[in-house]
Design goal:
By secondary structure, the chain is mainly alpha-helical. It has one domain. The protein is 76% helix and 0% strand. It is built from seven helices and no strands. The protein has helices at 5-50, 55-74, 76-95, 102-119, 129-163, 180-222, 232-259. Helix 3 runs parallel beside helix 6 and helix 5 (129-163) runs antiparallel to helix 6. The radius of gyration is 26 Å and the shape is elongated. The termini are far apart.
Amino acid sequence: MTDGTLDAIVALFQAASAPLFLRVYAPMRALFLTLFWIDFAWEAGLWVVADVADFWARMIRKLVLFAILWGLLVTAPFWLSEILEGFSFLSEELTGVPGLSPSAVLDQGLSLFFGLFTAWERFASLFNPVAAFLRVFGALAVLLAFTLIAFALLRVLVEAAIALGALAFFLGFMGHKATWGLAEGYLRYLLNLGVRLLVLYVLVGVGTNLAAIWETALREASFATTFTDPRIFIAIPTTAAIWAGLVLLLPGSVAREITGPFALSGLNPMGRSSV
């Protein structure tokens, strides 16, 4: 019904993700080199002034650390995207859903909207104010619920594309102990995003199966020769609203609980910062 408009938006951002990463790739490495050698020169000067006994051992450790971190930056195009793609692969294996499609969800909502609206014609007249209100309110509630679910999917997929593109620049802040937290925050954000993707896959995978059952029930109600229990016209909008609430609130809540305690500050290879 929507001709894949929302999926086209996602595809547009995903297509732009790699070019955006390539644009920030060189500035990211330049930022890392600048910060690292500032940190290196400062610490080396302090070691000389303090006349530390293990000066050369510290110098070698610092250079080995540079080689490791520089290797991570150079290979970022290969391992960075695997973080989110790993969550997506796991989600597809668990749910059997080949991919999140905002357009498919919105199309399902539109189908239920028209099905719910037309099915009412057999059981309620537009000239009945109460029936007319329930008819319009119920159909619009379903459409709004599915629109919000489609928005949630669109948001997380676009967010993932941006995170793997332009936001990769924050990896360059690994070069200095005072700015290490920015790179750590970026990696924690990617983990948070991956958990949200996983929870969304589960919620949407189960919910779309439920929506298919609703579509069948409404088709049967539309062609029924006997009166159908009208409670279905209240149950569907109510359940859709609850499902939308879960999709909007649960992924973020679960991701915060899992990734909230996660921190790399204690493992900061650059050392402790006095800033």
